[in-house]
Amino acid sequence: MSIQVQLRRDTLANIQANHGAQGELFYATDTGELYAQDGSTNGGFPANGRQMPFGSRMQLAIAESSGAGGESLGTGATYTSTLQLPAGYKFILGAGWYVNTTITGPTSVDFGLVGSSTLFATGQTPSWTAGSTVIYGQNALRYDASPVSLLLTTHGGNFSAGAVRFAVHFIMLAPPSS
Predict the structure, then answer these.
(1) How is domain 1-47 classified at the architecture level of CATH?
(2) Which end of the chain, N or C, is more open, meaning fewer C-beta atoms within 10 Å of its C-beta?
(3) For residues 103 and 73, is the Cβ–Cβ distance under 8 A?
(4) Could you read off the pLDDT of 96-115 as tens digits, one per residue?
(5) Are 41 and 19 spatial neighbours (Cβ–Cβ below 8 Å)?
(6) Does CATH number 2.60.120 belong to domain 63-174?
């Protein structure tokens, strides 16, 4: 006979506005994430990391474009993504995209962040066909004072069509707070 265990669950917004008992787990029904509670911090802490007694913290994270069709690249020589990486210290493992709608226009692209346009790739010519994917390794520690957007810059022609879904894999880092 099996035993069913049910966690406390709610939307992420409601979890972040409340706190649970020390050691209690909350499940965010809209994001699929687990949050460990410490008895006093609203929202608790994502269960995919660790926080030490003096505030040092590490958390695995993925940022991904939302929307069923991905992000439409529009027309022009650059595209600034609606996807933003959070402020703070982060160790970026890799970044890439899935092509939702075939990309036309450029012969190659630079891929990076606003303020660091070639962080992930320079002059790359990946497949532009719908259904193709690409990911670039990074292994870079960076600090951003505010959220930062992804950036594609074209070479050999402007974007004339296409849509992609971006993803960035990273580890959030925090030094001791006391």
Answers:
(1) Ribbon (2.10)
(2) N
(3) yes
(4) 999 999 999 999 999 999 99
(5) yes
(6) yes
